Amino acid sequence: MILLASERCLPHSVSPRTYRHLSHSVSRCGGLPPPFKCDELQTLRESLHASSREHLSVPAVSFPLHGEKITLLNSPPQFFEALVDGIHGAERRIVLASLYFGRGPDAVHLVELLQHACLTKPNIKIHILMDHLRGTRAGKAGHWRKGKSKYRKYVMKKLKLEKDPPESLYPESTASLLLPLIQEFPQNVKVTFYHTPKLSGLVERIVPQPTNEVVGVQHMKAYVFDDDAIVSGANLEDNYFLNRVDRYAVFRDLPQLSDYFCGLVDTVATFSYNLCKDGALRFNKSEHVHSHGDRSFGAFAAGAMESYTRQYIEKIQNYKSAETGPTDTIAYVTMQLGQVGLRQDEEFTMQMFRELSRQRWHTILTSPYFNVTESYTRAILKHKGRFDVVVAAPRANGFFFSKGLLPKIPVMYSQMLKEFFDRSFAQRAEGRLRVFDWYRNGWTYHGKGLWARKEGTDCPSVVNIGSSNYGRRSVQRDLEVQVTLLTENEQLQKQFGRECRNLTPYLTPVSRETFTQPDYLVPRIWRYVAAILKSYL
């Protein structure tokens, strides 16, 4: 018997009928699931494997795994604690790839842990990859840390401290936060900053911060500690540890997968800037490329990432043949850097959409910044199975309560959602296509990814998790990495089901009337602006 939450406890925005219907779709994991239909999953696996080799410009790296080595985290505090435990427990290597390091007390705690690791483990190697534009953006100079961190005691316990350290100044930027690590532990720590090739010269000097970040950023989120890895969409900033919903998958004791992410970060570092002891950022020059503005940068970057992927596929063939015991999960890792012509993740995602549609899987896609490309839109509207889209409500968008022009960003996303909704209505897709927005008072939404389950089964067995928002910017401008999991492990499937179920109480169906509500109203001028800036959002 499946037990759902009491309807009396539902938020007022979700009707009992809607809750029952959506719960039936994504969270029927209360009891023991029926035997897994491995033939259908196997068909999907074979199709994706074949398409990866035949139709992708760069084949996707795949890893056969045991599902019990994968754990999903359910909250921002769990994510922070996993980072703390990973840094504290690592003995050989730490790799952190993210958009930026925040300047708040909790982000500073992570740097304190990195310093402690270098002091206590002199042979440890740390590589941090951030984005150049975001990572050098300065905050308010001289802004004192206010109050105590929520996680102070947890970090003190790890560092075996008895008293709080004295208050310190917030760093001005990610670069200034990490500079002491380079100065104190140059043999242990490497910090690199990727810079988009589409912003250079006079234009780079003219376009101000933070506007320049719309041109393209390093957006990957992968965190490696020895042979463990966390793949997420969350950055290393205080909000992501407190009240910003995201997704997090922990891969434990998987050296091949961890090696891949370490090598990928090292590859990106070959065409990125190094943070030096004097505080300067110097490009990792090669024979052909001397800066991100060189004409040959795109070809060099694309060639380096493609070469790395192909070499790694050859490298793991021995691992596949030596795997002991039957595996029940396969992980495909795909990357995207549309600015240099690398579109592996987009091609793989489109092939996955086609296969899921052909077999009539029930698919759920979520994005906090809904601005899907034309190819993705067509694939969603033509999907033969049921398809749910989950987006952030305007008030759940992190820019909604910002200052200046930033609150207009949710307005433009509302316009793009309306265009998608009107198009689905015109094509009579509303019977099998549903749209929901997510809102929880005091929280913001940053979850992105995909879940899919075969009709008649209880829990998702196909999941996509990573940094991409499936939008035009993710496809065309940013550097992204995704992991797609196919599993017949029942416990892992239940974790996927719980992940979906956690969203349900905060979902509201989007209808035509939704766009008459104040938060969704878009002034005419901003409709035009949204049309112009669509590829930058």
Give the SSE map.
Elements (H helix, E strand, L loop, with lengths): L15 H11 L11 H17 L6 E5 L4 E4 L2 H14 L3 E5 L7 H16 L4 E7 H4 L16 H8 L14 H11 L4 E6 L6 H6 L15 E4 L2 E5 L6 H4 L1 E2 L2 E4 L3 H15 L3 E3 L5 E3 L13 H19 L1 H6 L6 E9 L6 H15 L2 E7 L6 H8 L5 E6 L15 H19 L6 E6 L5 E2 L3 E6 L7 E5 L5 H5 L2 E9 L2 H14 L3 E3 L14 H10 L4
Parallel strand pairs: 3-4, 4-5, 8-16, 13-14, 14-15
Antiparallel strand pairs: 1-12, 2-9, 3-6, 5-10, 6-7, 7-9, 10-11, 12-19, 13-17, 15-20, 17-18, 18-19
Helix pairs in contact: 2-13, 3-4, 3-6, 4-6, 10-11, 13-14, 15-18
Descriptive key words:
single chain; 537 residues; alpha+beta; 9-stranded mixed beta sheet; 18 helices; 20 strands; 38% helix; 19% strand; disordered N terminus
Mean model confidence by pLDDT:
87
Number of DSSP helical runs:
18
How many extended strands?
Answer: 20
Distance N terminus to C terminus?
44 Å
Rg over alpha carbons: 23 Å
SS-based class: alpha+beta
Residue fraction in strands:
15-25%
Main pleated sheet: 9 strands, mixed
Give the % helix: 25-40%
Instruction: Please tell me what the overall shape is.
Output: globular
Summarize the structure.
The chain is built from 18 helices and 20 strands. The protein has helices spanning 16-26, 38-54, 76-89, 105-120, 132-135, 152-159, 174-184, 201-206, 239-242, 255-269, 297-315, 317-322, 344-358, 374-381, 408-426, 472-476, 490-503, 524-533; strands at 61-65, 70-73, 93-97, 125-131, 189-194, 222-225, 228-232, 244-245, 248-251, 273-275, 281-283, 329-337, 361-367, 387-392, 433-438, 444-445, 449-454, 462-466, 479-487, 507-509. The protein is globular, with a radius of gyration of 23 Å.
